[in-house]
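2024-03-11 09:14:02 DEBUG pipeline.ingest accepted 1 chain
2024-03-11 09:14:02 DEBUG pipeline.ingest length=130
2024-03-11 09:14:03 DEBUG pipeline.predict start
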Amino acid sequence: MISTAHRRPPRLETIRRRLDRWRHRRPHARAPLPPPLWAAAVALVPAHGLYATARALGISYGALKQHVDRQGRHAHAPTTARFVELPAKPVSEAYVVEIESVRATIRVRLPGLALSELAEFTRLVAGPTS
């Protein structure tokens, strides 16, 4: 019987093989790791953790942590749409819709709209959903 206790997930193993190939072909021993390999290593961290990824790939924990932190500051991951239940308001009251982005927050006051009209407005602002 073959033990699977020490087997790594295939994606991790794939990146490990890419790193090994690069190490054998690099121009000199202290050549910096190419950005695509750093990106692949960083992508593994959410699933496997920082320490486990660094150890499995044979790369510096500190350097990997810096790349993860740097990506966290610069990455603007698209947010998924969330369902928000709105209470029905009389037409005389106004809905206030806030749209947040990295650069600005836009607040739109929509007086005199029915709930169905508000839904249509948000579809127009959001654009196609898929």
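2024-03-11 09:14:41 DEBUG pipeline.report The CA atoms of residues 99 and 106 lie 5 Å apart.
2024-03-11 09:14:41 DEBUG pipeline.predict end
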